[in-house]
Amino acid sequence: MERRATNMGANGSSATDDAAPAELDVESRLTDDNHDALKLWLRMLSCTTRIEAQVRSRLRTEFGITLPRFDLMAQLDRHPEGLRMGELSQRMMVTSGNVTGIVNLLEEEGLVVREPAAGDGRAYQVRLTPNGRRAFKRMAARHEAWIVELLKGLGEHERGTLLRLLSTLKAGLSTPEQT
């Protein structure tokens, strides 16, 4: 398995650069002298990268869709009334140009509709179409099954413990002295 660096293009596709084999990922640079916090960070990053690569591949193979398009549809699924383009950009933490490209493609496929936002002639509201909602529900169910499968190496107790520990970490990252 290879480690790949990906960059999302404006159209929601990803450019892929071949990198070193997985054995030579970021964790391989660690030594016994490195701080445990650095080791933990790189281990979490490595796991996240591997899971994301599997999800990207499975979405592409099974549904012919990219992860950014899936993510945009997930945002819209949580907000049936729709979201403004700027809100989508903020929620997805990508540029408005990236959101526009993704929305254009999803609109061409009949999965989303873009309408002028009420009260602001310059803004657009985007929402899932009925077809888009049905398609997303199918993808979301498969996505959840994949995540369950990918985390099967952890038992129920271990998952609970890890979830609590990561919640504690996340809360600590939100404090002003950490930013």
Shape: globular
- Rg over CA atoms: 19 Å
Helix content: 55-70%
What proportion strand? 15-25%
Number of helices: 6
Structural class: alpha+beta
Largest sheet report: 3 strands, antiparallel
Low-confidence stretches: 1-22
Quantity of strands, as a count: 5
- Helices and strands, in N-to-C order? EEHHEHHEEHH
- Order of the strands making up the biggest sheet: 3-5-4
**Mean model confidence by pLDDT:** 84
| Distance separating the two termini | 35 Å
Structural write-up:
Helix content is 56%, strand content 18%. Mean pLDDT is 84; it is low at 1-22. β1 (2-8) and β2 form a beta hairpin. The protein is an alpha+beta fold. The longest helix has 28 residues, at 36-63.
Structure described in brief:
The chain has 179 residues and is α+β, with helices and mostly antiparallel strands. It contains six helices and five strands; from the N terminus they run ββααβααββαα. The two termini are 35 Å apart.
